[in-house]
Amino acid sequence: MTEAAARRTPGTPCWVSLLVHGLCTTQEFYAALFGWEFVPGPDQLGPYVRALIDGKEVAGIGQLPPDRHLPVAWTTYLATDDADVTAETIRSCGGTVGVGPLDAAEAGRMAIVSDPSGAVFGIWQAAAHIGTALAGAPGTPVWNELVTSETSTVAKFYQAVFGFEPEAVVSADFDYQTLHLHGRPVASLHGVGRALPRDRGPHWMTYFEVADTDEAAARVVDLGGHVLQPPREGSSGRVATVADPEGAVFTIVRSADR
Fold first, then answer.
1. Residue 162 contacts by C-beta under 8 Å, 6 or more apart in sequence?
2. Is the pLDDT at 115 greater than 70, yes or no?
3. Which helix (H) or strand (E) holds 250?
């Protein structure tokens, strides 16, 4: 495991968070699945906790207001040096700003936005809180991927906003682009065509590292979640797509280099 760098290059995925209806029961699920412990975080958007592994912050979970019936989903945050400027750029490039920009106490400044296809993500301007502080250990976010119908159009949006350098997989039947910053892969776009889930539409998917994919998938079910795609070998390792008891979808992976 490694501690994450203090400053993230703008565009780099730097944090993931989840808004749920049952904060306590969701904490119990992820504590049992990943071994997370929790501490209070900024509550500008309601009750909120940060998940820790070995005392290092790795993710956030907040509670939805009782009258808000929003889809429960993990949100990927991309780093920015100026949330206000990035929000304006998102608007000018065809995206939408849904929340903010606003200050999260002394932690930083953030906004919740969506790209032109409707995929929701966050932008984070770090102050006291740099984002995910640990990488490589089981229970930490290891990758973020935009699942969309096709990648060519939306790639231009992310390129214009964040300066990504896309690298496409040359294949007649596989629509996939890796997003690079300064020559380093940081995220990916995966076009799945008609296989895109109608109930979710285009969305960012968070991958969490696990020590054993099969064991973790079985534990998800034991804890009241669901396995949507059973464990299988992928290019990055052994993966499975699962959902927590409130329906938030994520991928678990035992990386090939572990």
1. 10, 11, 78, 181
2. yes
3. strand 249-255
pLDDT in tens, 21-80: 999 999 999 999 999 999 998 877 689 999 999 999 999 999 998 877 778 999 999 999
**Which of these, 29, 82, 86, 89, lies nearest to 59 by C-alpha position?**
29
CA-nearest of 145, 128, 160, 139 to 29 is 139
- CA nearest to 250, candidates 6, 10, 20: 20
Residue 98 CA to residue 151 CA, distance in Å, equals 23
Using a 10 angstrom Cβ sphere, with 0-12 exposed, 13-18 middle and 19 or more buried, the burial of residue 201 is middle
> Facing residues of 20 across strands?
63
Neighbours of 252 (CB within 10 A): 30
Q: Residue 33: count other Cβ atoms within 10 Å of its Cβ.
A: 21
Give me the numbers of helices (H) and strands (E) for the chain, helices first please: 4, 18
pTM over 0.90: yes
Angstrom distance (rounded) from CA 42 to CA 154: 32
Which residues, 6+ apart, have CB-to-CB distance to 141 below 8 Å? 13, 16, 58, 59, 132, 206, 207, 208, 209
C-alpha–C-alpha distance, residues 104 and 70, integer Å: 21
